[in-house]
Amino acid sequence: MKVAKFGGSSLADADQFRKVCQIITSDADRRLIVVSAPGRRHADDTKVTDLLIACAEARLDGGAAEAPLQAVVARYAEIAGGLNLAADLVDRISDDLKTRLAGPTDDRGRFLDTMKAAGEDNCAKLMAEGLAAAGADARYVSPRDAGLVVTSEFGNARVLPESYERLSHLAEAPGVTVFPGFFGYSPGGEVVTFPRGGSDITGAILAAAIKADVYENFTDVDSVLVANPDVVPSARPLPELTYREMRELSYIGFRVFHEEALEPVFHAGVPVHIKNTNNPSAPGTRIVVDRRAPPGHVAGIASDAGFCSIYVSKYLMNREIGFGRRLLQILESEGLSYEHTPSGIDSISVILREEQFDAAAEARVVARIREQLDVDDVSVERGLALVMIVGECMRHVVGIAARACGAFARAGVSIEMINQGSTEVSMMFGVKADESAAAVRALYGEFFEDDD
Ligand code: ASP
Fold first, then answer.
1. Rounded mean pLDDT, 312-322
2. Nearest residue (CA) to ligand 1, atom 2
3. Which atom of ligand 1 is the closest one to the Cα of 182?
């Protein structure tokens, strides 16, 4: 049995719905289907989820929600019309949206989540009807009835462990079951959504719960590429990678598959197959437990800007017990999460995501470090990018760092920081953000072009 999840671009209009119906009905094993909300039809379009957020915010701020609400109804009407489905389906969707919009707004997060979840929920109902109209034995199931229980963190739900057992009955459901992605129910019965892009997470939870043979994740690219094609237009496809490689790559920059979606399938050992709705016969990319590759093989290159570094130095830091803990405690008490802490004998840098560290937070943190830790020097460097090479087979191979550094030197890229993860699955370089594209191209040239 396969779980197949379809992303927003696969459901953007009636033509896309038809392709999805065809994909589902062409394989009798595709029996548990997860859908996102309709996404963008073209570059200037707005996703249904964003329209729903606009509706909710208009109501919360006392403005008029009518225009975005009508835009959402129009999106469903266009799809239902294109599939020749009964007109009353669109009336039901419209009524559902109005009921949600008229609901209590005392808790902003709860209200927003109830509105956001409408995108997937109604899309799943539409898909079930579309499949039935195409002759399939298909039905919609509500995450509440099915047993998807999550924490009450609005917009940031986490699955509760009992869900897996509760959802396992879906393996026995007859025909095709269509399940809306992106949300579950709290133990108190409230709708709570996962982080944005969270339909991938729903699919992964279901695949783990029913111990699927494979979790197919249908999107709009033929396969994952070894590097961002905006930076390296000739980047090669990546036919296979391990969970750990995908985890490292999606940490900075690989957006094809939600990083939180890996955990359930990884624990259950269910392979993931990323495929293209617009070209379903393309081989796609498989995410597996283990794979064979030559020693030293680099699976992919990822990069992301938006990092900064707090550099702290103090003579004899290495002898001062508790220095690192006290430094990180200052960050913790400011509500800051850190990413890495490369260190020297008498110095340490803490790498953070810049978006959470505004000028006021910086001033407070720097002052506290000076006062409480009595340091020789503390400074903040902004505008950094992290560039990473990832590959399980890099482990125990001599010379990978030398090759990477040589490539940077030839491209004139200066390295601000090097960090090799303790698992040796990845090697990370901090560079100035405006040099990150050159850094990625240099690494691609070194590890993918020279060995062609
Ligand atoms: N529709 C939601 C979003 O746009 C969830 C998803 O598509 O996975 O974030």
1. 94
2. 197
3. 5
Q: Which residues neighbour 194 within 8 Å (Cβ) at sequence distance 6 or greater?
A: 150, 156, 157, 182, 183, 184, 201, 202, 260
**Average pLDDT score over residue span 271-279:** 97
**Residue ranges lining ligand 1, Cβ < 6 Å:** 8, 36-37, 47, 49, 119, 181-182, 196-199
| Angle formed by the axes of helices 48-60 and 108-133, nearest 10° | 150
Residue type, 366: V
Going by pLDDT thresholds of 50, 70 and 90, the confidence category of residue 293 is: confident
The count of other CB atoms within 10 Å of the CB of residue 407 is 19
Q: Which atom of ligand 1 is nearest to the CA of 199?
A: 8
- CA dist 324 and 318 (Å) reads 10
For ligand 1, the distance from its centroid to the CA atom of residue 197, given in whole angstroms, is 4
| CA neighbor of 182 nearest in space, from 328, 39, 70, 61 | 39
- For the chain, domains (ranges, CATH) are 2-288 (3.40.1160.10), 300-449 (3.30.2130.10)
Among 49, 115, 194, 220, which residue has the most ligand 1 atoms within 8 Å of its CB, making it the best to mutate? 49
